[in-house]
Amino acid sequence: MDEKACYFEDYQLGDSRTTGAKTITEADIVIHAGQTGDFFPHHIDAEFCKNTEFGQRIAHGTLTFSVGVGLTASFINPVAFSYGYDHLRFIKPVFIGDTIHTVVTISDKKDHKKRANMGIVTEHLEVLNQKGETVMVADHLLMCQKRDA
Amino acid sequence: MDEKACYFEDYQLGDSRTTGAKTITEADIVIHAGQTGDFFPHHIDAEFCKNTEFGQRIAHGTLTFSVGVGLTASFINPVAFSYGYDHLRFIKPVFIGDTIHTVVTISDKKDHKKRANMGIVTEHLEVLNQKGETVMVADHLLMCQKRDA
Amino acid sequence: MDEKACYFEDYQLGDSRTTGAKTITEADIVIHAGQTGDFFPHHIDAEFCKNTEFGQRIAHGTLTFSVGVGLTASFINPVAFSYGYDHLRFIKPVFIGDTIHTVVTISDKKDHKKRANMGIVTEHLEVLNQKGETVMVADHLLMCQKRDA
Amino acid sequence: MDEKACYFEDYQLGDSRTTGAKTITEADIVIHAGQTGDFFPHHIDAEFCKNTEFGQRIAHGTLTFSVGVGLTASFINPVAFSYGYDHLRFIKPVFIGDTIHTVVTISDKKDHKKRANMGIVTEHLEVLNQKGETVMVADHLLMCQKRDA
Amino acid sequence: MDEKACYFEDYQLGDSRTTGAKTITEADIVIHAGQTGDFFPHHIDAEFCKNTEFGQRIAHGTLTFSVGVGLTASFINPVAFSYGYDHLRFIKPVFIGDTIHTVVTISDKKDHKKRANMGIVTEHLEVLNQKGETVMVADHLLMCQKRDA
Amino acid sequence: MDEKACYFEDYQLGDSRTTGAKTITEADIVIHAGQTGDFFPHHIDAEFCKNTEFGQRIAHGTLTFSVGVGLTASFINPVAFSYGYDHLRFIKPVFIGDTIHTVVTISDKKDHKKRANMGIVTEHLEVLNQKGETVMVADHLLMCQKRDA
């Protein structure tokens, strides 16, 4: 795990990176149901799902979010920390066997209201499946040090 | 898993429920790192963490979110579906051995702009630890059918 | 997890409830083999199984039992505790992809021989697959407080 | 995994074997809760457990049973199959860190009522912890071929 | 788990044993990726793999090694310990659904250079798939006590 | 997961890189025992281990190897593939709570005997614990394309 200091000034609006991809397997859903206790039939009951709109089991929203975010964890920025997420939306279902990856785009930058040496960088996350369809979006808020602070 | 139809009209502003609780164990963090590929040292490297602000490993934000949301999955509402989350914020770290639960409060209701038979219910989620400290908040958006639609 | 006091007197012979269902996946068998150390080829060796009566891998009996019982864990009864099981029988094999649920029926009630304030309630468990076939039965013994004890 | 044909006649009343042992870890309980969906606070909520009779989390009964039985899975008997269990009783709780093993004793043999070439062998299972205390017992019913059948 | 003292003199050149087999499932690869953090697309990205030489996901080399060695863990030899491995080679890929087992052959014996009471036994491990193809080989070095030492 | 073509000529003798670190938890050992079926008491029986040389459970050699290698999986080299390992040695035990990382040093380069366009690069892996002690070594053989081949 590499460490790279990336200050508020280093983030450029519109800059974008694409993560590696992961296939969401039946095992992933079983493990996620087990970790969260979310045993909703939409995720663990194949018979129930035959009669739903999608006709099959779908990944938990929290699984899509966890993997979509996890795939972005490629280097450590010691001068920033995660603040939260806004506008998290599940656009399309993720099915067993779908392969997802994330595109991260710097979509906003603003000064921190109270702390002059800090800024808020917004990373727009777009999680896509193997067909290029967007399955999830979210705005990740990163609190960053300013370089000369 | 019980099923109970809960229409837009059935949700009352200010209504609140408290979920069961789960202790976040070292095993949970190991499994979550494995599921997401997020091997950041803040979660899996106890030596690194000795020199951080907290002095110990912390749960992934996505783990706190997944468990905090999973604990609310107690009954199926066939006339509603999850739309997304707003204003997800990580307020305090969750450490190994902390026990978290979630308080769900109906905080907003509004008509759907385009679909007359639907409304948006906002569930405010507050995840608390065993000391009663809020560790995470989020607004869950639920799209619900109206009763007479 | 809701808590509801259910006393000896509250259980009615013949009362019945049906749990949610869970699909038994290949991942469940892999995880169960790992947890128990039961690496019998009937569960983990697909080639060996081609030459067995069933032609495919089957779930461990302990897995069917654990899930069949686990699905009944929907509310906490603070005035009762599990005493054991009688007449546990594996009727039919559970295959990968089968979806099982449990029907719980109150089949017997009797006073505790030594403790006047307690009674034994028998819950008959019947685990069924998606075809409605019974795959497992067991009698669950519940030691319950009497209401006016 | 060795295979050894062991016929009805080969089982001797009173014969006994002792399995290897396994420490029941916090991870085992987390994984078992996940596999079964049994999120009862007795197993996953350390805070709740502080106020119980035992003062700490306990293993699921189904976990003790699954591991206690799994430890006996040391060789394959192609002329017998598992029929079920009788008189399964949880005698003492199993705590995180307890190490359990199983003693298997041939406690009964009888002819099969309908099939002249088969017999029923009862293996009495006794699961013990590291203090030598019995934590679980069960009678395992094994349907065996007779040698000259 | 049986214990059996097997001294240096007891190992005979050319002696061979065959282990049980295990099917390598998608779940095994998911769990192994999670345990090691090796999220290479060759193992977890089914779309990427469509364009590789093999056209599908393959097991991690470390998974094949871990299972191939694990299958040999059938009895404890209290007078020997594992020293290491030489000449570990991955001959063919292991795909999801392949079933592997290990053949262990005593291929070399020599005195320990410095300790007169010890010898080095080489176990040649050959891991084969269900087609009888060798997928991995390695030489396991076992340091053994001499009987009359 | 970044991709970076690294040809035979690009590897320089003596070049070295240090990976991130991972704490080996009790959960990791439980999961590894489950994945491999290696239920040797040295890994899963805390009581047995009290009477061993080390007084406590130790990680499986295959776990140390899998994690030590997995930590090096940081970028994809499309012009090389893993050939095998030589001289894998377990130097010191890894205990629950130890934190390990890997130092990779280019220790040898040679032409491939039969294929003029390929070379063999040896990466010496040294796995160290939090005290700086070497717990494992191995020589990783990488078959690489030559740049102008």
From TrEMBL, chains A, B, C, D, E, F:
Membrane-crossing segments per the record: none
InterPro entries assigned to the protein according to its UniProt record, in alphabetical order: HotDog_dom_sf, MaoC-like_dom, MCH/BMMD
Pfam family membership, one: MaoC_dehydratas
Residue ranges of domain MaoC-like in the record: 19-125
Similarity field: Belongs to the enoyl-CoA hydratase/isomerase family.
Protein name according to UniProt: MaoC family dehydratase
